[in-house]
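Hi team,

Filling in the usual template for the complex we talked about on Friday. All components are listed, including any nucleic acid strands or ligand strings, so the model treats them as one assembly.

SUBMITTER: L.P.
PURPOSE: interface mapping
COMPONENTS: two
RESIDUES: 805
SEQUENCES:
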Amino acid sequence: MLPLVARRLRCLKNRVAGLKRWEWVRNAAFLSLGFWMLFGLYRAFFRLLTFLNAIELIGPLLVWKLTAMAMLTTFGMVIMSSLIISLTTLFYASDLRFLMRAPVRMRDVFADKSLEAAFFSSWMIGLALFPFVIALARVRGLGWSFHAGFLFLLAPCLLLAAIVGMAFTLALMRAFPSARTRDAVWALSSLSTALLYGLLRFSQPERLVRPDMLRRVAEYLNYLQAPTAPFAPSWWMTRGLSACAVGDWAGFAAQAALLWGSAAAAFAILILAADRTYALAYSGAQESPRGSRPTDLPPMPEIRLLGERGRVLGALLWKERKTFFRDIKHWSQIMLVGSIVFVYLFSISRLPLDTPELKSLVCFLNIGTTGFVLCSLGLRFTFPSVSLEGRSWWVLRGAPVDVGGIMTQKLAFSLAPTLVIATALVAATNHILDADPFVARLTLVTIWLTACALCGMGVGLGAFFPKFSVENIHQIESSAGGFVYMACALGYIALVMGIEAIPMQMHFQQILGRAGAWVPWAAWASAAGVAALNAAAFGIPWVLGLRNLEAYEGD
Amino acid sequence: MIELERLGKRFGSLVAVEDLSLTVSRGEIFAFLGPNGAGKTTTVKLITGLLRPTSGTARVDGFDVVTHTLDAKRRLGLVPDEPFVYPKLTGAEFLRFVGDLYGVPYETQRKRVPELLEMFELLDRGGELVESYSHGMRQKLVLASVLLHEPKALLLDEPMVGLDPKSARLAKDIFKTLASRGCAIFMCTHILEIAEKIADRIGIMLGGRLQAVGTLAELRGRSTSSGGHLEDIFLQLTGAGEYAALLKNL
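RESULT (copied from the run log):
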C-alpha cells in the first residue's frame, strides 16, 4: 500500500513543481473566484440563519433542524456522486491495467482506488458545506472549537456516504458480471432513484415545516425536535455539532466515536469484501456487451433531415446521438432530469400564492430558478460535450471538418433538449400560476434567449478548457473550466434578472394604477441591454473556445 | 505529394523537430525511422494539422496544412500510433461515420464497407461495439477507414503494432498496392524489416533532425558499418557506440 500512496504524493509533487508562472497566476485567479463564490454562499446562509435564529422560542430549533437537513442533503449528494464516480474509478481507470498486472495485493489496489473515488465524489460537496457551518457558528456565537469539531466530524461522515456508493457499485458489478444484465440493473436502479425522489416530493414534506398545516403547536415542536433520519451518519454529525455548540464534550466524543468507528468499520468491511469480490467484478467490468447489431450501413436520419449540404453536420449529430444514448452512465442523469422537471412543476403548483400580482412576480422570478436548473444541466451535459470526444478526438481533428462545425454540432445537440426543458419549466409555470400576458411573453422569450446563451457559453467554455484525457465526467465538471462556466453562467442569469427587473417594475406600477409608469427609453434600453448581454454571453466564450480548440495541441 | 520545407516544432525549450525538409512523391513509400522521442510522431501530427509548426511549412498535394487545412486533410489518411475509436459505435457505424466526414458517396459506402470489413476479417464483428474489439482489431478498423475514402497521401504511425502476422502481411500488400496506384505513403515504424522490404526511400531522425535520407542502397553506400543491413546503418546513425554500453547494465 505504501508504494501506491508514495506514487500519488510524487505525482502531486511533480505536478506542483511543473507548474509554470502563468499556471500559478491562473490557479490563483480561480482560487480567488472560488473564494468569492463561497463567500456569496456564506452571506446567503448567514441572512437565512440570522432570520431563523431570531424567531422567538423556536429559533434555535429551526436553526438545528435546517442544519440536520443540510447534513442529510450533503450525505445524499455524496452517495449519488459516489455511485457514478466509483464505477469509473474502481473499474475503468486507465492506471488499473498497470496496477492489476503489478505484484500488488488486490485489496491494496482497491483501497487506493476507493480512497481516490471517495475524495473525488465528496470534496466539492463537502466544501460547499463550509459557508453554512461558518455562518451557523457566527449566528450562534460559536468559537474555534466548533469549527475544529466540524472538521473532525466531516471526514468520517463524507467517507461513510462514499462507502455506501462504492459498496453498491461493487455489489452490482460482482452480482451481474454479464455486461448486459449489469446495464439493465444500473438503469433500473437509476429509475428507482428518480421515482423515489419524485415520490418523496409528492408526499409534500413542506406540510411539516408549515405550522399552519399542523393541528397543534405541540406537533410542530415535536417535529422540530425529532431526529432527521436518525440512522443516517448525517444525524450523528448534527448531534455532534450541537453537542460541540453547547460545550457537551462527552456528547461530542460519543458522536465522533460513532462516526469514526462506523467509518473505520465500514471501510474495513468494504476492503475485506473487495478482497473476495473485486478481482471478479473487475474482470466482469472489462467485458463489453457482445450483442451484434446489423452490419448493414445504418440509416442516418440527421443527414436525411439536413440534406447533402449538411451532411457533415448530420453525421456528427448522428454520432453524438448514438454514443450518448448508448452510454449507460448518461441514463441515470436523464432520468433524474425528468424527475427534477416534474418535481419542480409540482412544487410550483403547491406554492401558497394568493394575489395575481404575486403569481406574476413568481413567474418572473422563475426565470432565475429555471436559469439555475439550465446552468446545472449545462455543467453536466453541454460543458463536457467537447471533452467527451476523449481520446477519439484525433478522428475529428484529422478529418476535413472545421472546429467551428464540430462546435456547432455540439451546440445543436445540447440546444434542442435545453430549449424543451426551459420551455416546459417556464410555460408550465406561467400556465399553473396564470401569469398575465406581458409576464408570460417576457419570461418565455427570455428563457429561450437564456437557453441559447447558456448552450453557446457551455460549448464555448468547454472548447476553451478541453480535457480529452479524463476518466470520468466529474473530472470535467469539477475542473477549473467547469468552475468558470458555473460562475459565468450564474453571473449571467443574475444580470439578466437585474436588467429585466426594470420593465417588470414599470409593468407592476402600471397594474397598481400609477399613471405614466412606462418610460419608453428605459424599456428600450433594457431590451438592448438584454440583447447585448445575450450576444456577449454566447459570442465571447464561443470565439475564445474556437480559437483555443483550433490551436489545441494537447493530448 | 507531401512536401516539408524547413519544418520545425518547439514545445517551450524542447526542440521536437528542427529544419526538416523532405518530399514524398506520388506512388512512393517513405519509411521514417528513429529512436523513441526522435520527432517522428510530431512530424506526422504536423503534416495532419494536429500540431502547428513553429517554423517552415508542410504541404499536401500543394495545399499548405496551416492555411488550407481542410483541403489538405481531404487528401490525407491518418493511422495514428494508438487507434482510439469511439467505443460506443460499431465497426460498421464507424466506417459509415468516417465515410460521411470525408464525403464518400453513400452508394460507394454501401459497396465498400462490407468489402473492407471482410478484407480485414471484421465482417462477423462489424455489428459489435468497438469497445469489445482488441487493439489489433481497432488497428484494422482504422486501416479500413482510411482505405474507404481513398486518400492521396497516407500517414501511418506504427501501423503494424497489434496486428497478427496475416493482417500485417495484408497491410504491407495494401500499402504496396496503394503506392502502385499513386498514393504517397509516409510511414513511421520501428520495425526495420518492413522499411527494408517495402520502402522506396528511408529517412532516419535523431533528436528532431533528419540524419540521413535516401534509398536503402544510398544509405548503405554512405554507411561505414560492416553489415549491409538497415539495422546496422540505423544503429550507427543513432548511437551504436552507446548500444554496447547499454548492454553492460543488463
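MY TAKE: The CA atoms of residues 25 and 74 of chain B lie 17 Å apart. Chain B is about 40% helix and 25% strand.

Thanks, L.
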